[in-house]
UniProtKB/TrEMBL annotation, chains A, B:
<keyword id="KW-0436">Ligase</keyword>
<dbReference type="Pfam" id="PF00152">
    <property type="entry name" value="tRNA-synt_2"/>
</dbReference>
<dbReference type="GO" id="GO:0006422">
    <property type="term" value="P:aspartyl-tRNA aminoacylation"/>
</dbReference>
<dbReference type="InterPro" id="IPR012340">
    <property type="entry name" value="NA-bd_OB-fold"/>
</dbReference>
<feature type="compositionally biased region" description="Low complexity">
    <location>
        <begin position="51"/>
        <end position="62"/>
    </location>
</feature>
<keyword id="KW-0067">ATP-binding</keyword>
<dbReference type="GO" id="GO:0003723">
    <property type="term" value="F:RNA binding"/>
</dbReference>
<feature type="domain" description="Aminoacyl-transfer RNA synthetases class-II family profile">
    <location>
        <begin position="262"/>
        <end position="566"/>
    </location>
</feature>
<dbReference type="InterPro" id="IPR006195">
    <property type="entry name" value="aa-tRNA-synth_II"/>
</dbReference>
<dbReference type="InterPro" id="IPR004523">
    <property type="entry name" value="Asp-tRNA_synthase_2"/>
</dbReference>
<protein>
    <recommendedName>
        <fullName>Probable aspartate--tRNA ligase, cytoplasmic</fullName>
        <ecNumber>6.1.1.12</ecNumber>
    </recommendedName>
</protein>
<feature type="compositionally biased region" description="Pro residues">
    <location>
        <begin position="1"/>
        <end position="15"/>
    </location>
</feature>
<keyword id="KW-0547">Nucleotide-binding</keyword>
<dbReference type="GO" id="GO:0004815">
    <property type="term" value="F:aspartate-tRNA ligase activity"/>
</dbReference>
<keyword id="KW-0963">Cytoplasm</keyword>
<dbReference type="InterPro" id="IPR002312">
    <property type="entry name" value="Asp/Asn-tRNA-synth_IIb"/>
</dbReference>
<feature type="compositionally biased region" description="Low complexity">
    <location>
        <begin position="16"/>
        <end position="28"/>
    </location>
</feature>
Length: 574, 574
């Protein structure tokens, strides 16, 4: 079809590529400039699209009768009765030559001539297929229809009738590369605006500017290792704020959907593994009557004639379940921290994966279980989410997450970790003490040493000093300056804190007093009394931060990217 | 062993049975009296146990050397190296004659003679086995040991070494009836107090007094059909407040654990069914920036320099996921209502099971899906939780929950329901209107008619009048006085509300104005604008109240019994 175009085709709704940009040069200034440019481009594109639409409307009226006029339009029309409903994921040889129907977003338009236009149609995730609208002699697909389809705004939702064909060459631009759709009818089910607030291409780029957090990052106070962004030619990246302000396009980006899929698989793997190990799920409350785990970082709210607090963890409730006759429990749900920290790894609401279990002989039974469930998650992700991980890596490059071989799990005591730091770590850690908690930079330095020495991104530090653990932590019976408590790490950063808990009320009160906590204070008295109601088995557990597991596994530059609707001190919307 | 007892055995820690009480006569007065009596009994038992313990301590010193002295005691001791760890659920023929170890709660003690005592040992749920401590000639089990075991307080947690034997006759009192444990060693891992705040027998009885709610129940304002309590001879029931004040014993009762198991299976069945139907899980936030779904019943809290609200439903967020390119989503999590209603079916925090999906041709696709998942849950419970359901029924008697046969699901339009009420319902409903929402008593009357007519406890009312539905409900295109919205019912009570949502921003604004809602108000403007960001497919869904599904399926007298930690306007603890 070499016939020249009768009318100049309207420009595609998305701005055209404009040549590459060096990834390494993306400084703060460049990012700002790029964003301003993106906005300008979007505005320009919007105006062009509007002009094109107006022209199209004016000329179409003047043209000859359109035999295809019922086969396209801005409202749903009638498809062939025998059209087979398809979805792109399961499209196969059996559909070739058949009339099919598809509901999908139009993500790109490429005009070939006045008689032919190529479109990309996308379903959920990155499942896209090439469609062709080509005017035919019979007039069931007309030039007017071609022109009209060319003018549809990107990200409109369409109903399409088509014949499935095999392209001469695989379509590299689309995930479905071995089939294409020869479109016979096309209707808009829901129109997108002429100019999108953020294009899909921009939405699918790495976020490098986390605005509110930027200051903190630059100060290096709480800096996450920011993965270098991959930069498809000419599409500038958008800031996290732009993403949140354009939540629809943010979520439509394949990278965002892949991260969500991975996150949900972590939850599912956590639950299914624990169920198979005899754990019972339960639900702790969010609203609680006392700020029992420390008052500083707790949200408080008026509650009828009294006051309520939002739970900072399900700690006490997990223990109540064990006291209440369960041998093993887990829960998955939101927890809240009223901490005014504007960094890439803080949120005010996040999801906890928690477990608690009876200890029979040693609290290492709990470490075994926690290692077991996390390794199950890591291995499960690799198996079930290989494509999603690859997709995320194409936007946020990362090294594979290193997991120890079965039987070669890495557990150091806190003291061993400090010794390693002193002996093999950077100069400034030559004098670190065995009785002071580690700082974040210390953790990172130790993580690097461990990766070098043991080849793993996942390891455990056990036997934390008494000073570093809360009042409910059980002291090591053979050395009361230590506790039977541990942290788990992924890529140098803590993702889990846990330990054996005190199950004897007298011992609990004594340790509370030693830690300067009043065992008679509101909330704590009720907590201690639970262990007086009846005999409570020895028990321990841990709490895993879901957002952190996802972000660190994928080496994302912020936990905010791992959350569905990140909550920060400055942001409660959408 | 007919030898008479050398010393009078200490009385068992739990009050002895005292003859039956007629279930039907349990009025409010009787319940109060019974509770007072129970307290007295508990106190009496406690004192008796203390006396017995004192006597035992005094006499044992005077006795001869105890060859068994290392085989029992208040601290953990050494078991045989070859002792096999068992749990009661999997105890089998292969264990007979073997030395085993078991950790369990002692729930009952029956002294046979100075040389022999029977104990009941319980693991999680209602898995219990009979143990026997009998003094032997070798002295490895001594009279002193028998006496000491007899004095252990009920609900202490024990470590036991024993030989598994087959009893002469099945032990009817225990779930494990074909094996018994001949105990050779016995240590207390965690001691219970001499007097329990609530005995296991009392905890396992039906709660009939919901105190705070009692007034409302008596006024009949919001009365749930209270199942008649089954009354094991002589054990008085405790009020809901007593249960909550004794949370450990409340949770140890097999009935509470069975209800929890059923609840968690509902969640699991919900998730697994929807995953199999291509749904993606997501997590909506609890903290939101605007009281977008109505300000009256929303909790508000100070949030750094601004204000936050607790989500009353995930409605908007489910829709954002659809707008964001998901075809089908679900979520499971807490929702909050600041409603000062003290009734057996209100809570301030409860769990929602929510879904939202694209509509291709008709919103009946959504009804099909919701019916599908609920029927899957009902059938799954019958299959997977038959024992738990039976156990709950032994405490809270109920008729089997009637489910329609496949293909015979009952769907009436709201108007058909009202017609049925007018024509076949009680006198007072002769004039009910098709354009006014139903009251709770009306719902109950209609439910009774439907059960009689169709033999089902599960049905759908569709096409609710426009007046009765929120601003986001889609009007019926063929009759705008109706909506494409529905409620689902279980045993005459609503458990689900849902419908098709408006996906066009102009239509949405128009309906908001019609309903007197300002589309520019905080929260709502952002909501409407989401549909302007890009083309959003037609969609619908529904929200299921998990607590209600459990309570109504089992016909429990209050949703509070279905919750793990019920939150009411007057109760935030434990």
């Amino acid at each position: 079809m070499s016939e020249p175009a009768a009318n100049p085709p309207p420009p595609p709704a998305e701005p055209a590529p404009e040549g590459g940009e060096d990834a390494a040069s993306t400084s703060k200034k460049a990012a700002k400039k790029a964003e301003a440019k993106a906005k300008k481009e979007a505005e320009k594109a919007r105006r062009a699209a509007e002009r094109a639409a107006a022209t199209a409307a004016a000329t179409s009226a003047a043209e000859t009768e359109d035999l295809a006029k019922d086969n396209y339009g801005p409202k749903e029309g009638q498809l062939a009765a025998d059209a087979i409903e398809i979805n792109l994921k399961t499209l196969g040889e059996e559909h070739v030559g058949k009339t099919v129907e598809l509901r999908a977003w139009i993500q790109n338009t490429r005009v070939q001539s006045a008689k032919m236009v190529f479109v990309e149609l996308r379903e959920e995730g990155n499942w896209a297929i090439q469609g062709i609208v080509a005017a035919n002699k019979e007039g069931t697909v007309s030039r007017q229809m071609v022109k009209w389809v060319s003018s549809i705004n990107s990200e409109s939702y369409l109903l399409v009738e088509a014949t499935v064909q095999k392209p001469l060459e695989p379509v590299v631009a689309c995930r479905v590369s071995h089939y294409e759709l020869h479109i016979t009818k096309c209707y808009i089910l829901a129109a997108a605006p002429a100019g999108l607030g953020m294009t899909l291409a921009a939405a699918n780029k790495a976020v490098t500017n986390f605005s509110d957090e930027q200051a903190a990052v630059e100060e290096g106070v709480d800096k996450l290792s920011i993965a270098p962004a991959s930069e498809p030619a000419g599409v500038p990246a958008a800031s996290m704020l732009t993403h949140l302000d354009n939540i629809v396009m943010h979520k439509r980006a394949p990278v965002a959907q892949a991260i969500s899929d991975i996150r949900m698989e972590v939850k599912e793997l956590f639950r299914s593994y624990l169920r198979s190990q005899g754990f019972k799920e339960f639900e702790p409350p969010c609203l609680i009557g006392a700020a029992s785990e420390g008052g500083a970082n707790v949200f408080r709210l008026p509650y009828f004639s009294t006051e309520a607090f939002l739970a900072q963890s399900p700690q006490f409730y997990k223990q109540y379940e064990i006291a209440g006759g369960r041998k093993r429990v887990f829960c998955v749900g939101p927890v809240f921290r009223a901490e005014n920290s504007n960094t890439p790894r803080h949120m005010t609401e996040f999801t906890g994966l928690d477990l608690e279990m009876e200890i029979k002989k040693s609290y290492h039974e709990v470490i075994d279980m926690l290692e077991g469930v996390l390794l199950h998650i890591f291995r499960g992700l690799k198996e079930r989410c290989a494509e999603e991980i690859e997709l995320v890596r194409s936007v946020y490059p990362s090294e594979e997450f290193l997991v120890p071989e079965s039987g070669k799990e890495v557990r150091l005591t806190f003291a061993e970790g400090q010794k390693l730091l002193r002996e093999e770590g950077p100069e400034e850690y030559r004098n670190v003490s065995d009785h002071e908690d580690m700082s974040t930079p210390q953790e990172k330095a130790l993580g690097a040493l461990i990766r070098k020495k043991y080849g793993t991104d996942f390891y455990v530090l056990d036997k934390f000093p008494e000073e570093a653990r809360p009042f409910y932590a059980k002291e090591d019976p053979s050395n009361p300056s230590l506790t039977n408590a541990y942290d788990f790490f992924m890529r140098d950063q803590e993702i889990l804190s846990g330990g054996q808990r005190i199950n004897d009320p007298e011992e609990l009160e004594a340790r509370m007093r030693k830690k300067g906590v009043d065992p008679k204070s509101p909330g704590l008295k009720e907590y201690v009394d639970v262990f007086r109601q009846a005999g409570v088995p020895a028990h321990g557990g841990g709490g895993i931060g879901l957002d952190r597991v996802v972000a660190f596994y994928l080496n994302l530059p912020s936990v905010h990217l791992a959350a569905f609707y990140p909550r920060t001190p400055k942001r409660l919307a959408p």
